[in-house]
Amino acid sequence: MRTPRPSSLAWPWKRSRATAVGSGGEGAIRLFHVSKSYSAGSFALRDVSLEVGRGEFVFLTGPSGAGKTTLMKLIFAAEHPSEGQIVVLGRNIARLGEAAVPQLRRRIGVVFQDFKLLPRRTVEENVGLALDVVGTPRRKARAKVFSILKQLGLHHRRYHHPLSLSGGEQQRVAIARALVNEPEILLADEPTGNLDPELTVEIMDLIASAATRGTTVLVATHELDLVARYGKRSVRLKSGRIVEDSPRGGPVR
Amino acid sequence: MNAMNSWTAKLSYFGRTAYHGLRASPVTSTVAVAIIGISLVLVGAFVLLIANMEELLDRFGQDLRVTAYLEAGLSEDRRRELIGIFETVEGVESVRIVSEAEALERFQAGVGRGEALLEGLDENPLPASLEITLVPANRSASGMERVVESLNGLPGIEELASGRDWVEGYLRFVALVRGLGIGLGAILALATLLIVANTIRLGVFARRDELEILSLVGASRLFVNTPFLLEGLLQGAAGGLFALLLLYALFRLVLPGFEFGLEFVMGGISPRFFGGSEALALVFSGAALGLLGSGAALAGDLRR
């Protein structure tokens, strides 16, 4: 199903960074004693400390309400921690000014369970949104969108609207949007939650392939089969606390 | 070069997004344009009225003069002496004597067919007078006042008359119309701002998913807001243009129907429409209203 990635499309900065600091040498995401509470006395996250190295692939597991989504939101600065420090790609989230938040988000791709696609825009326009915000010239943007859609096997659907696509195809569009800017971190919050089991594997393969190219990948899921299948590091949350951090496993597949 | 390409790409995105936004809600957009248009028609009509009244005042000012009625039986020498005195007064351009006979002739020409009025008069009841034309700078209520004051009390003069009262009355009327225009304009501008702000807010609400996604992919606040500001600007400019066309249509088609009233207010001077720069100012006012309205809508907390 997956189209092999042509070597010319490898992301050059990834290679240079790997040489400079080494894969996983410097934390892409670091949390120090982070707590988040939305109302007094009730914590969504409590005293969480976590380090995810560059290029690392980590599953975030736990039941609904364990704090997985809150943790993701803190990482892409959609929320601020109530206590503790978060450093993402060398930037302290608590000290980010309003203007710096978009800059950080351009280095992070995000994928959600509900895809978050714009129904009135075509597949090409949806994916191109991530390039529009950084002012990529139109011709170059179209070429990049075509290239990523081709890798995800969706280039023939680029003029379709999301609602005419299947769930799996919609999630692939969302992944294309998250990856088109060649992000340093990919966050996926229950990316397969709305999909059939066959599609789940297909989508997870795509996400895992980003990690092989040097992108730090954090996937929140409650599907333990999936975690077992990929044999990667998994961090288990329960009631806002980390209760287990099992070591990194073998290769992606 | 890269920065320029990037800006061209962003401008193209803003244009496309504003266009999509306007197309996505044609009814609300049309209502906003119509409301801006109607407000500007009302304000524009007041501006036109005031401009024409001021022009009228200007034209009448050319004819304003002070008349000094002379006492009956004043000698020729004294009359010439008075002319000499008047001509030295500051602000006076020229002095002309109107004899009793000339005054009667003018009166007869003025009343026209009402000649019967004069029958039965044995002698000419009209006095001779000196008509004093003022230098242009003094052709105003205060200018006339100054001249009248310096001539007052000279022996041989029965009465000094000027159009001062009329000018003052007309000025008060123009000031009233202008005050009304400014008041109405301010209220309409405020109402229009609120309506445009509300229209844009509806647009923001309708597109909150898009804003959330834009924010997720790293769009700055300026990047998110600009298409909405552009929409407001375009709606405002369209409203201004609509107002201009409507005013022109009213001016050309409806105004001639009120010829009598017009004659009364304008005293036979044909009213004028906006010039090129004034017409442009009207369209720009619309654009500014639209821009301010959308700015006000976005000033609140957008979804980040």
What secondary-structure arrangement, pairings included, does this model have?
The complex is a heterodimer of chains A (253) and B (304).
Chain A: H1 12-21, E1 27-39, E2 42-53, E3 57-61, H2 68-75, E4 83-88, E5 91-92, H3 100-105, E6 108-112, H4 123-132, H5 138-151, H6 167-179, E7 185-189, H7 197-212, E8 216-221, H8 224-230, E9 233-238, E10 241-246
Parallel strand pairs in A: 3-8, 3-9, 6-7, 7-8
Antiparallel strand pairs in A: 1-2, 1-4, 4-5, 9-10
Helix pairs in contact in A: 4-5, 4-6, 6-7
Chain B: H1 2-24, H2 26-63, E1 65-70, H3 76-88, E2 92-98, H4 100-111, E3 129-134, H5 141-151, E4 157-162, H6 164-206, H7 208-216, H8 221-254, H9 259-266, H10 276-299
Antiparallel strand pairs in B: 1-3, 1-4, 2-3
Helix pairs in contact in B: 1-8, 2-6, 2-8, 2-10, 5-6, 6-10, 8-10
Please give the count of helices of chain B: 10
The overall pLDDT average of chain B reads: 80
Assembly form of the protein: heterodimer
User: How many strands, what sense, and barrel or not for the largest sheet of chain B?
Assistant: 4 strands, antiparallel
**Termini gap of chain A:** 15 Å
Q: Note the overall shape of chain A.
A: globular
**Percent strand of chain A:** 25-35%
Number of domains of chain B: 2
> How confident is the prediction overall: mean pLDDT of chain A?
84
Nearest-angstrom radius of gyration of chain B? 31 Å
Brief summary:
The complex is a heterodimer of chains A (253) and B (304). Chain A is 33% helix and 26% strand. Chain B folds into two domains: 190 residues, no CATH class; 98 residues, Alpha-Beta Plaits, CATH 3.30.70.
